[in-house]
């Protein structure tokens, strides 16, 4: 079976839709998502609707924690808007009860078995959803990763693709669908073939015109949001 791994979508619906369409052409049957459906950009409701429609297996990211925190108390909203842009504010305004319930039910980690392979889904790391594990820092965490007995440990959060091997196990970051940070404007994701254990890193071109228009509308002074596109 071919599995699609997505992460860090961040309300970038056009990019996510294009990745899923490409995944289906590749024969993907199952979609795994590693969190951060909200934050930064502006169509999280469409992203969540599509994930629900595709019956994706999802976990929570740090931006979902921010969203839930702000639902309870909007006191920190100006701070988060300054840091991440108006995407989180629009999420609060646009997400309906079904979307909020979807987010509330998500766990930080999830273990699943597909074709006798054990997958551990996490966001930053299995022990800390806010930890950035960059490729050049991976050596610092090898001993901790060895404690997890899984064929594949899946990570997001850094927005950078990574594949590391620990004995027979693989630690994999598919990169970011919504805000790639590894040098180009292509949506990043990955495919795993459970029969061959082959991993294919994907880079998908999407039409960023609508996204750039929205950035200029909602966050014209936030250079961080537009520099990736």
Task: Explain what the structure shows.
33% of the residues lie in helices and 21% in strands. A hairpin with a 2-residue loop joins strand 7 (162-166) and strand 8. It has a domain at 2-108 and 175-226: Metallo-dependent phosphatases (Purple Acid Phosphatase, chain A, domain 2, 4-Layer Sandwich), CATH 3.60.21. The radius of gyration is 17 Å and the shape is globular. The protein has 9 helices and 10 strands. By secondary structure, the protein is an alpha/beta fold. The strands form 2 sheets. The protein has a 5-stranded mixed sheet with strand order 3-2-1-9-10. It has a 5-stranded mixed sheet with strand order 4-5-6-8-7, with no helix packed on it.
Features of this protein?
5-stranded mixed beta sheet, Purple Acid Phosphatase, chain A, domain 2, globular, 9 helices, single chain, 33% helix, 21% strand
Count of DSSP-assigned helices: 9
Coarse morphology: globular
| Sheet with most strands: strand arrangement | 3-2-1-9-10
What Rg, in angstroms, do the CA atoms define?
A: 17 Å
Strand content is 15-25%
Class by alpha and beta content: alpha/beta
Number of DSSP E strands: 10
End-to-end distance: 33 Å
Oligomer: single chain
Query: What profile does the largest beta sheet have?
Result: 5 strands, mixed
The CATH architecture term of the domain at 2-108 and 175-226 is: 4-Layer Sandwich
Would you give the CATH topology of the domain at 2-108 and 175-226? Purple Acid Phosphatase, chain A, domain 2
Overall helicity = 25-40%
